[in-house]
Design a protein that fits this description.
ATP binding; histidine-tRNA ligase activity; 20 strands; ATP-binding; 21% strand; BirA Bifunctional Protein, domain 2; RNA-binding; aa-tRNA-synth_II
RNA sequence: GUGGCUGUAGCUCAGCUGGUAGAGCACCGGGUUGUGGUCCCGGGUGUCGUGGGUUCAAGUCCCAUCAGUCACCCCA
């Protein structure tokens, strides 16, 4: 019974083998970098109770819910479970659940798929991978983590062959304090309105501030002036001061942001800019907020975002403030794989193809392959005893760098099919250059 | 989730006002009967995204649907 050819599912991308290999390489590279900074690997289940996912009134989230197919037809209830839409909320739950067994400050990384039911387009999927790092502590979290995490991200992104990235950083205390000091009725609403400045322009923001918050001309002018501030060093503080607004929370925010920007400028020059219009949508952020854009792909949106959250992991009197950043792995890969700007040096793990002289030689060739594998060299034997030209082409199509030709006396020659160089080798000692041992990421 | 645009071979695309499809590259076979890439010769490999409808006749017109993409929303 033919069911016809299956079609793709909107928003659920599946890369071809070459892309899969690229994603694996990217994830491995990120994992190594995170571990180098002492972050422990962690995975959480795919599902969370809906009340966990929807806490903080995040009802706008397009959460996929789980329901048993076998549920009674007249049973309208669901399981009360939903797929997580990010890795921060599940992590906060995990911390609360295991607080007694964890050591604080607790730092972990987590690389997993997430699900959101929104309309897909380039860089936006319904199933997508995030690579998330967070640090949480008990009761209070030292501000220096807000400086450290961007540097870890700088290392991680720097280890990948990507276009230059720029991280725009702001501090909610700065914005909120500024609007409070300015005398606006609803500082949080002002933050959200000003965040739209790239969409609706300064005039639109001004009009909205006036109509929704009753802001005066002077207040609107001050808000727009703040939103214009964007500096690669600590000089933003002088420009904020020049606006003549005073508020204790504002001062705190300026101090924290100054530390982030100046430290980043020292350790990762060119990565971070203070950008006082950045707000971030998620309302659980309470301090530093981050958004990162790839140069030349700004329209793709942020490829790494996060911030400090003081109240996400709280239960009763227990409080575990944290700060985290998430890299949008699928967003980056969808763009770069889609445009063939990021590839792997080969489409299979195989380093050596053992040529098959004739069918009777297969056992001997299998032994040769086993010998190489024992030394960690990924090896496969040619699928059929075709003409050597065909066998070489088999390797070439897949990017396999070496073809091994056995001879009748138990020796072998290995050909580097990129250069055409072919030499007799000792099977029990030959080793490829380290660069050829595994597929690597490559830009084209 | 709302709205717009797009959908022909593996890829990039052509196909005028309706007459059951074509180019380049790629791929396959051979020249070269066991060492690829160059060159030469030969081969079209296709449910025109899918399903309906109009028509004597649909790749072409209409509707729906799926997918991609863009804007909104939101955000990785």
């Amino acid at each position: 019974m033919s069911q016809g050819k299956p079609t793709p599912l909107s928003g659920f991308p599946e890369w071809l083998p070459a892309g899969q290999l690229v994603q694996r390489q990217v994830i491995d590279t990120l994992s190594r970098t995170f571990e180098l900074h002492g972050f422990a690997p962690l995975s959480t289940r795919a599902v969370e109770p809906l009340d966990q996912l929807l806490r903080k009134g995040e009802t706008s989230k397009e959460v996929y819910v789980l329901r048993r197919l076998q549920a009674d037809a007249d049973d309208a209830s669901d399981s009360g479970l939903g797929l997580h839409f990010d890795l921060t909320v599940p992590f906060a739950r995990y911390v609360l659940e295991n607080a007694g067994k964890l050591q604080f400050p607790f730092r972990r990384y987590q690389i997993q798929p997430c699900w959101r039911g929104e309309r897909p387009q380039e860089g936006r999927y319904r199933e997508f991978w995030q690579a998330d790092i967070d640090v949480v502590d008990r009761d209070t979290l030292s501000p220096h983590y807000e400086v450290e995490l961007p540097l870890v991200i700088a290392d991680a992104l720097g280890a990948l062959p990507l276009p230059k990235a720029t991280m725009h950083v702001n501090n909610r205390k700065l914005s909120q304090g500024f609007y409070t000091g300015l005398g606006l009725s609803d500082p949080m609403a002002a933050i959200r309105i000003v965040d739209k400045i790239d969409k609706i322009g300064p005039a639109g923001v001004g009009a909205t501030l006036a109509s929704e918050l009753g802001a005066s001309d002077a207040q609107v002018k001050a808000c727009l002036a703040l939103a214009e501030i964007r500096t690669a060093d600590g000089s933003f503080a002088d420009r904020v001061a020049a606006l003549g607004v005073s508020d204790p929370l504002l001062d705190e925010g300026v101090e924290e942001l100054t530390r982030v920007v100046e430290t980043a400028a020292e350790h990762a020059p060119g990565l971070v800019v203070a950008d006082l219009r950045i707000a971030r949508g998620l309302d659980y952020y309470t301090g530093t907020v981050y958004e990162t854009f790839l140069d030349g792909a700004e329209a793709l949106g942020s490829i790494c975002s996060g911030g400090r959250y003081d109240n996400l992991a709280t239960a009763g009197t227990e409080s575990y403030p944290g700060v985290g950043l998430s890299i949008g792995v699928s967003r980056i890969l969808g763009r770069l794989i889609g445009r063939a700007e990021l590839t792997a040096t080969r489409t299979v793990p195989t380093c050596v193809l053992v040529a098959l002289p004739d069918d009777a030689s297969r056992p001997a060739c299998d032994r040769i392959a086993a010998t190489l594998r024992r030394r960690g060299i990924a090896t496969e034997v040619a699928p059929a005893a075709q003409k050597y030209g065909k066998q070489i082409r088999f390797a070439q199509r897949r990017g396999i760098p070496y073809v091994l030709f056995p001879d009748a006396e138990g020796g072998a020659e290995i050909r580097d099919i990129r250069s055409g160089e072919q030499t007799a080798v000792q099977l029990d000692s030959w080793q490829p250059p380290a660069a050829d041992l595994h597929p690597r990421l490559a830009t084209e």
